[in-house]
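Notes from hallway chat w/ T.B., transcribed later so I don't forget. T.B. wanted the structure written out for a chain they're using in a teaching module, and asked if we could keep both sequence and structure tokens in one place. Agreed to drop them here.
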Amino acid sequence: MILEAMKMQNEINAPISGIVSEINCSPGSSVEANIPLIVIKPEEDG
């Protein structure tokens, strides 16, 4: 995910691999600190 903050783009890597199940923001919107931007459903082995 790429997050723009103060005119700078920051690449954020997920701590786990999986599928994005929720997106809690939209492009161009402002977000507050400590609010989850996305929810990742872990991949199932099998």
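Follow-up for T.B.: The CA atoms of residues 5 and 30 lie 10 Å apart. Might be a good example for the class.
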